[in-house]
Amino acid sequence: MAKRSTTCLWISPLSSLILPRCGDALWYALALLSILSLLLHHLSLAAASPPPQQPYFEGFGDELEELEHSLDESPIQLIDLPPSPSLSHSDSQTHHGPPENQADEFQPSDQSPSPSSPCPRPSQFEYWDEDEFEGLPSDLDLPSQSEVITENATPSESDSSASKTAASKPQVVASWRSYMVEVVCVSFLIAFLINYFTGKKENENLALAWAAKFATRDTVFEKNFSLLGVGEGEDSPLLLKEGQNVFKFYASGRRYCQGLLATMELKSRHDLLARIYNMVVPCKDEITFEVYMNDDAMDHVVLAVAKKKAAKGMHKDLTDLQRFASLMSPPSGRKWVSEELTIISESKEVASDLITDSVLDQVFGDKAFETFGKAFISIHFSDQHLSTHKKKLVFKFALPNADNMADMTRLVALVPYYIDMVGRYRLSSQVSHLS
Asked: pLDDT digit string (tens) for 215-230?
């Protein structure tokens, strides 16, 4: 009975460990699974890790093969190597050394590097290949990239880097050349804008200079017309700007005429292309005076004066001159206009009556025209103009520079002079009948 109780005392703890109670069965299963998983994890790592291999370095394969071949032929491979001198010899080892022939054969092998001896480490890793360095110890320190670059910086490579730097300069120049079209366009646009404002200002200054000389107080038009400018008030502007190169001046309040309109057509200085064109083909700043005569103040008169080449063009292009007038030859026995000028008239009587000696002395004579006639272009009187106002006097002059505006004073004085002269002029009965 005692034996049985003792056996039960031993079996009950074991059974409690192997067969736990129902409440602890879950915890027991989890602990068992954890232990099994840890065991399997260590076994898988041990099976997956390859056996340690000798580190292999590029360039040492042939020497290692020769070393292994010599060791295979040597009988020293069959005996154990002698221990290091620093270690104490065991009692079982005799005091006799290895045989002489074996010692002699062993000596060269000591001089040659053994397979287990560490191979010399290369100073630089120029070509890194993971397959060739399989089995390399993890504690082997690799040189940093900066050290490799420093070591590899040989003079030849420095020369090559300098050549690359020199070769990069033409690439920079080529990159600028690729934007040449954009640079030219932007430069042209900037030049166009600058020329626009400067040319606009030049034209305005020229028009104002003419108005200050001939349309202000105590000037020719202020003395001969009662109303100047485009408005009705005293503070009305003198000039009307219709464009960057077109300005107009209006005057009225004089006998024999309804009014006068002066149109200044200046060079297109605000346009860069037009400015360049004018450098090749020169042109002039022009002013045209159109005097609208009263119907009862002007008789049948057709007369034109211009330079020879321009007179031929006027006679060919203008209908009234082509129909009613012809080129006149200089009269004999009388002072006449300059040789540079040609007169187109319907009769010699009209030309002789309107080209007076005072006009010849002031403008159209040889000496006067050489001095004061440089800005003269043409005059055209006709009662057959193809426009709203048929009876009209037209004066066309070239404008000088703003500083030399006084040079055309005598030409401007012809306007009020011929207004009065044409307004008072009457044809003879014989010429009136023919006209």
From this structure: 998 899 999 999 998 8
